[in-house]
């Protein structure tokens, strides 16, 4: 087992926590959020999605920090519905007080149909 090159290191690496992967691992979610925001801006999300629902633009770290889970979930659902519609599928915009499990189920079902 020790003679198998690479296997031991791979197994150990999968058990590492975020602090053991390197100093930048804790900031990876912030980089992902900034990339997401750049892509949404390229799709004109501010004009097409946010103005229609009278919402504020996202900050650079909106989904990276858990500030208001209810608001963040609704924003996610709004963006998901908009992106699905932008891809050419009819998708009803979820309402703020809809059952979260039903909303996620509908989003996942629609994405599976792609």
From TrEMBL:
<keyword id="KW-0966">Cell projection</keyword>
<dbReference type="InterPro" id="IPR019530">
    <property type="entry name" value="Intra-flagellar_transport_57"/>
</dbReference>
<protein>
    <recommendedName>
        <fullName>Intraflagellar transport protein 57 homolog</fullName>
    </recommendedName>
</protein>
<comment type="similarity">
    <text>Belongs to the IFT57 family.</text>
</comment>
<dbReference type="Pfam" id="PF10498">
    <property type="entry name" value="IFT57"/>
</dbReference>
<feature type="compositionally biased region" description="Basic and acidic residues">
    <location>
        <begin position="1"/>
        <end position="19"/>
    </location>
</feature>
<dbReference type="GO" id="GO:0005929">
    <property type="term" value="C:cilium"/>
</dbReference>
<dbReference type="GO" id="GO:1905515">
    <property type="term" value="P:non-motile cilium assembly"/>
</dbReference>
<keyword id="KW-0969">Cilium</keyword>
<dbReference type="GO" id="GO:0005794">
    <property type="term" value="C:Golgi apparatus"/>
</dbReference>
<dbReference type="GO" id="GO:0005815">
    <property type="term" value="C:microtubule organizing center"/>
</dbReference>
<dbReference type="GO" id="GO:0030992">
    <property type="term" value="C:intraciliary transport particle B"/>
</dbReference>
<feature type="region of interest" description="Disordered">
    <location>
        <begin position="1"/>
        <end position="23"/>
    </location>
</feature>
<dbReference type="GO" id="GO:0042073">
    <property type="term" value="P:intraciliary transport"/>
</dbReference>
């Amino acid at each position: 087992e020790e003679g198998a090159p690479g296997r031991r290191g791979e197994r150990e690496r999968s058990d590492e926590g975020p602090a053991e992967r390197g100093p930048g691992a804790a900031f990876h979610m912030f980089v992902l959020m900034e990339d997401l925001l750049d892509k949404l801006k390229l799709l004109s999300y501010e004009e097409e999605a946010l103005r229609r629902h009278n919402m504020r633009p996202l900050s650079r770290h909106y989904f990276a920090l858990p500030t208001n889970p209810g608001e963040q979930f609704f924003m996610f659902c709004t963006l998901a519905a908009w992106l699905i519609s932008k891809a050419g599928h009819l998708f009803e915009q979820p309402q703020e007080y809809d059952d979260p499990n039903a909303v996620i189920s509908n989003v996942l079902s629609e994405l599976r149909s792609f």
